[in-house]
């Protein structure tokens, strides 16, 4: 009886502290879906404490007037500074490929990639890895640069080959936009 009671207590304790969520298959490290809000860097002056306690909504509104809103950097230009080149400049490939957009890659990372896919406004929409079937059949361990962008969903599909990666391969597409936003590169 005593062993059963101790066992039940241990099981209950483990159930309370265990993380029992289903493990998720991830191709990139977990990144928060929304930007984290950081507290203001400068402390408010002590004479504002009473005003903050009595009218916090007014202080928040006043604080928003003085916020500096900086545009996000042009992700395509950042990629080019880091050595990425248009695939269409490297091989016979369209400048805009329907379904993936304007594609950039570092030539020395072929055939695996990553390939960065941008819409017509230079917004990063996807990161693609092209995994040759031969490497899969040979049970190769592959490593490539990861993606620092949040991943909304993943597509995985076969391709018989195309300029730049002319061997049969699979596309592993990490979408940084929602399925509805994929339309930005549909045509």
Structural description of this entry:
The structure is a single chain. The protein is an alpha+beta fold. The chain has a domain at 75-185: Phosphorylase Kinase, domain 1, CATH 3.30.200.270. 26% of the residues lie in helices and 18% in strands. It has six helices and six strands, in the order ααααβαβββαββ. The chain has a six-stranded antiparallel β-sheet.
Strand content: 15-25%
Q: With helices defined by DSSP (H or I, 4 residues minimum), what is the helix count?
A: 6
- Residues in helix, %: 25-40%
Low-confidence segments, ≥5 residues, pLDDT <50? 10-34, 41-60
Q: What does the main sheet amount to?
A: 6 strands, antiparallel
- Distance N to C terminus: 70 Å
- In terms of structural class, how would the helical and strand content be classed? alpha+beta
CATH architecture of the domain at 75-185: 2-Layer Sandwich
What is the CATH class of the domain at 75-185?
Alpha Beta
Order of helices and strands: HHHHEHEEEHEE
Strand order of the largest sheet: 1-2-3-4-6-5
Radius of gyration from the CA trace? Answer: 25 Å
Give the strand tally. Answer: 6
Rounded mean pLDDT score: 74
């Amino acid at each position: 009886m005593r062993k059963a009671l101790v066992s039940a207590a241990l099981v209950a304790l483990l159930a309370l502290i265990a993380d029992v969520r289903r493990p998720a298959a991830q191709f990139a490290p977990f990144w928060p879906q929304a930007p984290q809000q950081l507290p203001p860097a400068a402390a408010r002056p002590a004479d504002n404490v009473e005003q903050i306690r009595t009218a916090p909504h007014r202080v928040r509104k006043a604080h928003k007037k003085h916020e500096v809103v900086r545009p996000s950097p042009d992700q395509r230009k950042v990629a080019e500074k880091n050595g990425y080149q248009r695939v269409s400049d490297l091989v016979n490939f369209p400048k805009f490929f329907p379904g993936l957009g304007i594609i950039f890659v570092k030539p020395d990372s072929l055939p695996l990639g990553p390939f960065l896919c941008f819409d017509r406004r230079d917004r990063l929409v996807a990161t693609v890895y092209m995994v040759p079937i031969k490497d899969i059949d040979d049970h190769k361990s592959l490593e490539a640069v990861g993606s620092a962008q949040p991943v909304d969903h993943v597509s995985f599909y076969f391709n018989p080959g195309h300029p730049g990666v002319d061997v049969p391969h699979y596309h592993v597409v990490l979408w940084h936009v929602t399925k509805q936003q994929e339309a930005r590169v549909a045509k």
